[in-house]
Sigma 54-interacting transcriptional regulator (Sporosarcina siberiensis), 434 residues
Amino acid sequence: MKNTNRLLLPFYSITVDKATIGIHAVDKDGKTIIYNQKMKEIEGLSLEDIKDRSILELFKLDQEESTLLKVLQQGIELLNVKQTYWNRNGIEITTINDTYPIYDKDELVGAVELARDVTVLEKIQQSYRKNSFPATFNQIIAESPSMKTVISTAKKATNAKLPVLLIGETGTGKDLIAESIHNELFPTTGLFYTLHCHNSDSLLIQRLVEDLENNQLYTIFCERIDLLSIPLQQKLLKELIKLSEGNRQFIASIGDDPVELIASGTLLKDLYYFFSSFTIRIPPLRKRREDILPFTTSYLALRNERFGSVMEGLSTEVEDLFQQYEWPGNLRELELLLDETTSLTTTENVITFDMLPLHFRMKSSNIGNKPNVITDFIVHAEKELLPLDRFLHETEVYYLEKAMKIHDNNITKTASALGMSRQSLQYRLRKLKK
Ligand SMILES: Nc1ncnc2c1ncn2[C@@H]1O[C@H](COP(=O)(O)OP(=O)(O)OP(=O)(O)O)[C@@H](O)[C@H]1O
């Protein structure tokens, strides 16, 4: 039996590494034992990031609720759990996860998560949902001066019919603006074709050419060209040059500063030049906080109309929290949060702090004087609770490391933020490293 297992090892190894689903397996202490290539891609982590670190450290106090952790704690499988989150590279990812406990005889020895990456499908679905209401500039919430400038520049680009490059973090509204440009073109270009560049599928460009073969008029929106591999960007540029002979509108989006992307070898300079006649930078939500509440009001009104719900607004406490939170996922994160919060309500018409999902309360718990809800998150376990001293040790290591990172490893500032003396912090750091 042992021999057969050994013979099968290279087969397992290749299968796991080449699988197109993400695989993450941990032992009973939460230490990573398998983390395949696809999982790295999905989560934007490298093996170095996760080696020898337990999921308690990696996820617990910082990201979403970890399904792996839940399965480890409860010992039962969790199937078809859909999660949308922003990975370590700030990319929005949607996965559907199946997570299984692993038993050796009756003893729980670990857990494994199988994650299907449905980001592109989710994007396509979002476009379909949006297509029932053609996007126009009128729908775009733009209270802030910076967003007003974005809209007026986008209108100029629409009139000029020149290629447009939209620059902005994930969820800032690049797709919405691209669609608005398309819908306001006159004379109109019939089809709005989105090339989702979120994967490095070598057939992507070939499919674009086939899809557009019989169409004369269209707008091509190449969404997040910076996520394509350089050879695919070269291929894309070649095709775009051929296609640019007709009366077509070209729009692309990128997630970061083009100069930096070019310098880091992530964006092909010539592809950038192709689109850069009109360059529009969409600021992140945290830099235009005037848009947060008007967007919330408008989004809630839209939901009320669609779903017959009665949510009117936010309590003052939640308003303040929204104004202070960083919104790394920008408007999309706000939308998802409002969806998640309101989908659980019945007769309430104001969103209060307690109604916000736990992961958001966790993430925002360092803002102002919000009660720290870490304990809510941790004490889920029905079985396999960690011994208290080990749990406290792991939590302390995590918390101190995080605090040090926030303060650029400055002991004095970290100690002051934690309400302790420098000496005491140094002592604890030394002790924890042992
Ligand atoms: N100013 C705005 N007014 C109204 N809705 C907005 C605004 N900005 C974004 N949205 C909405 O927020 C969601 C995210 O926007 P969108 O998909 O356009 O972002 P994005 O920058 O293209 O993100 P990604 O780079 O991840 O594709 C969409 O549902 C969009 O309609």
Remarks:
- Residues 388-406 form the longest helix (19 residues).
- DSSP finds 20 helices and twelve strands in the chain.
- The domain at 287-378 is CATH 1.10.8.60 (Helicase, Ruva Protein; domain 3).
